[in-house]
Amino acid sequence: EVQLVESGGGLVQPGRSLKLSCLASGFTFSNYGMNWIRQAPGKGLEWVASISSSSSYIYYADTVKGRFTISRDNAKNTLYLQMTSLRSEDTALYYCARRLRRVSPFDYWGQGVMVTVSS
Amino acid sequence: DIVLTQSPALAVSLEQRATISCKTSQNVDNYGISYMHWYQQKPGQQPKLLIYEGSNLASGIPARFSGSGSGTDFTLTIDPVEADDIATYYCQQSKDYPMDTFGAGTKLELK
Lengths: 119, 111
Description:
Chain A has strands at about 5, 10, 20-25, 35-40, 45-50, 60, 70-75, 80-85, 90-100, 110, 115. By secondary structure, chain A is mainly beta. The relative contact order of chain A is 0.31. The interface of A and B includes residues 47, 103 and 110 of A.
């Protein structure tokens, strides 16, 4: 069974940092591109960042470029999102999701981890 | 960025047909494939893939769900609607990879 389990969320002050993790199981992690997608409270879905299976290609939404860093450790089946200079508008439920190829859909999503940026 | 436009809500009766539309600001077809995907999200749950590449049913999804359309106009149909289908439905385009975008979602409600 495919499982994606996010962790590392919480309440953080504006300007501070936080690192999210996503532990994958039930599939060959190193074969899939991985993504972070977020959902602000009561709002829709926003793609945040993606990383290819071998970490060769990394992309960010303009809203987080320069502040967030996506990475992965295929030996540990884990995806990461390092978030710095956090803003109130980064408050959201952060999902990790996998995709097989560049234009494939996001076929499995984790349950999400909440990040709240507030003083 | 490619903008996806969905109606905010749709009211439907059980056992009737629900038709949810998604219009894109640019063509999301390429070489005969529509890079349009549909997801279902119930309250407190993560999104679930329903339809990929315009009309392909994802694994384990009931056949009462179907997708159609091409270019800039797409439709998700649920026929017949069951109580378990009450949720919010999102369309997503991947033609503009990596700048994938989602519609704002259509909340399916009971009439």
